[in-house]
């Protein structure tokens, strides 16, 4: 009986120790878990090269690892990737997640970047957290980049490659090849002709260089002539213009003086035209009559002598009329 009771006591002590060890392990797990933060990322493209335990980098700095990869049950076109990052990693508003390949090994990692300075951290809202935290942890938005961007644009790339191939086929048809061959042949002929005319082209270039030099000399002379013209204008024309301005001012002063003199003489001119001019006309008429009388006297003197002026004119002889007849 004593041996059986000792075995029961030892078994009970072992069970108690195992329970304490289990509790201690759970406590350590909880303590170690408090130093990490969990986030969900929903990728719409394939997550090739990404596995559970793959690294998570923040701006290239290792900051955590992938904890879980699964298809999102509510929308199967998304792949849910849960990550854990260190407590001190600043996962702020504006942070985005991309899948980035590591070298040429085919292994990928989750790259976090794009945080805005001073922005609040990404966290679940207090009200209605189901919209932003469908599985109880904050969600980091995605951004296409690296391999994901290449894979998402692969259909468009293939379509463009197909179009380019068709156009190259049309370009390299037999007809176009014949045309290209003719163009190359004409180009060879033109090259040979230019080579044959090399000396003439060199001479033409030399003459062109001389003409350009002469044009430069002419331009320099024109500049010097312009400077000389400016000096002449400054030394000769400007003083002459000053003298002309003074002459015009003097003539204007003379005209003003003449206008004043005419204004002063205007009453005398009115008297001369109203009284003196009729008397002068009468005097002219009297002088004309006297001139006519003197002309008549002069004619008598010429014809009859000086006595014709003093003696009376001679009467004609009277002859009696004969009655017998």
From TrEMBL:
InterPro entries: Mce/MlaD. It comes from Stakelama saccharophila. Residues 38-113 form the Mce/MlaD domain. This is MlaD family protein. Coiled coil: none annotated.
């Amino acid at each position: 009986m004593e041996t059986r009771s000792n075995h029961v006591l030892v078994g009970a002590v072992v069970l108690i120790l195992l329970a304490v060890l289990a509790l201690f392990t759970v406590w350590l797990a909880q303590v170690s878990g408090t130093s990490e933060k969990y986030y969900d990322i929903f990728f719409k493209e394939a997550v090739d090269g990404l596995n559970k335990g793959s690294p998570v980098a923040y701006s290239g700095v290792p900051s955590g690892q992938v904890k879980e990869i699964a298809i999102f049950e509510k929308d199967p076109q998304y792949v849910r990737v849960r990550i854990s990052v260190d407590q001190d990693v600043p996962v702020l508003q504006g942070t985005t997640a991309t899948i980035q390949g590591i070298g040429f090994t085919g292994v990928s990692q989750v790259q976090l970047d794009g945080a805005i300075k001073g922005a609040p951290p990404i966290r679940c809202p207090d009200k209605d957290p189901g919209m932003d935290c469908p599985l109880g942890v904050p969600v980091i938005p995605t951004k296409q980049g690296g391999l994901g961007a290449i894979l998402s644009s692969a259909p468009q790339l293939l379509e463009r490659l197909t179009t380019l191939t068709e156009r190259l086929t049309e370009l390299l048809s037999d007809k176009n090849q014949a045309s290209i061959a003719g163009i190359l042949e004409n180009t060879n002929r033109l090259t040979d002709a230019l080579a044959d005319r090399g000396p003439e082209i060199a001479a033409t270039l030399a003459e062109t260089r001389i003409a350009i030099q002469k044009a430069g000399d002419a331009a320099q002379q024109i500049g010097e002539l312009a400077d000389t013209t400016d000096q002449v204008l400054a030394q000769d024309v400007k003083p002459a213009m000053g003298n002309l301005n003074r002459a015009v001012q003097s003539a204007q002063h003379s005209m003003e003086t003449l206008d004043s003199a005419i204004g002063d003489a205007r009453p005398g001119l009115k008297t001369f035209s109203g009284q003196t001019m009729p008397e002068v006309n009468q005097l002219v008429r009297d002088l004309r009559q006297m001139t006519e009388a003197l002309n008549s006297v002069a004619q008598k003197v010429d014809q009859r002598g000086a006595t014709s002026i003093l003696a009376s004119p001679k009467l004609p002889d009277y002859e009696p009329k004969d009655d017998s007849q």
